[in-house]
Design a protein that fits this description.
Length: 210
């Protein structure tokens, strides 16, 4: 497998976490989003959207991290990142979507670039914009973890929800968003800092990291 990504991309980060949790071997191909490398014609030929991540596997190219993570769960079911019960699976997917649909798309690199170039936002304004979406989302997620978690977002082992949460906490730090109001989320982040799969997937530990 070849994972096309960028060391600081939240979507690529969550994909690396899932790959590491599954214990799968993969190569990496970095595309520096800051320089527009993801729009190179050779990469666009693989992924017409020109975004990361993309996963080359068995002659196919899989795009969009939610689809990649669901494929990983189907193709490599052990260890499971979704519960066995259908209702519980829906809860985990909802927690993942809370981050993946309602927080992350509003504070990724291209949104920050648009805020700066089209609206003249400085870094303080970009940080405030990110906080506007991270804080209410994390407030809801904190409540869901209180309801369902037992050391991780759902239960006592990592799930897809944690694959989404940890990169968003990393992003919150980059935008100077204080997370003191979310002790359960911070406890999960602390657990991830000592978990080999999450350590291996961390942006600082990637071959294309600055």
């Amino acid at each position: 497998m070849i994972l096309h990504g960028y060391w600081r991309s939240g979507a690529a980060y969550r994909t690396r976490i899932a790959l590491e949790l599954k214990g799968l071997s993969y190569e990496q191909q970095g595309h520096d989003l800051r320089t527009g490398a993801q729009k190179d014609p050779a990469y666009v030929a693989l992924n017409p959207q020109g975004m990361v991540p993309a996963l080359e596997v068995d002659g196919a190219v899989l795009t969009q991290s939610p689809a990649i993570l669901e494929w990983l769960e189907e193709a490599h079911p052990a260890p499971a990142l979704l519960p066995s019960n259908a209702v519980d699976r829906a809860h985990v997917r909802a927690m993942a979507a809370l981050v993946g649909c309602d927080i992350h798309p509003l504070n990724n690199l291209r949104v920050g670039k648009a805020l700066r170039e089209s609206f003249g936002a400085d870094q303080a304004a970009v940080d405030a914009w990110a906080a506007r979406w991270i804080l209410p989302g994390f407030e809801a997620l904190e409540a869901l973890v209180a309801r369902h978690g037992a050391g991780w977002c759902f239960g006592d082992a990592p799930t897809l929800a944690d694959c989404y949460l940890i990169p968003q906490i990393y992003s919150a730090a980059r935008f100077n968003v204080a997370l003191d109001a979310f002790p359960r989320l911070l406890a999960i982040d602390a657990a991830a800092k000592t978990h080999p799969a999450f350590v291996a997937a961390h942006p600082d530990n990637q071959p294309d990291a600055d």
